[in-house]
Amino acid sequence: xxxxxxxxxxxxxxxxxxxSENASRxxxxxxxxxxxxxxxxxxxxxxxxxxxxxxxxELFDVISGFELLSSEGAQRxxx
Length: 79
Hints:
Blueprint: H1 2-78
C-alpha cells in the first residue's frame, strides 16, 4: 500500500512538473509571437514610409523636369 502511495505521489509530482514546464513554454511562445507581431508592424510601417518617400522623390523629379522643359520651351518661343 505504501509502495503504491509513493508511486502515485511520484507520478503526480512528475505530471505537475511537466505541466508547469509546458505552461512556461507556452507563455514564452505567446510572448515571442506578440513580439514578432509588434516588430513586423513596425517594419511594415517603416517600409511604407520609405516607399512613399521614394515615390514622392520620383514625382518631384518628374515635375521639376517638366517645369524645366516648359520654361526652356517658353524661352525659345519668345526668342
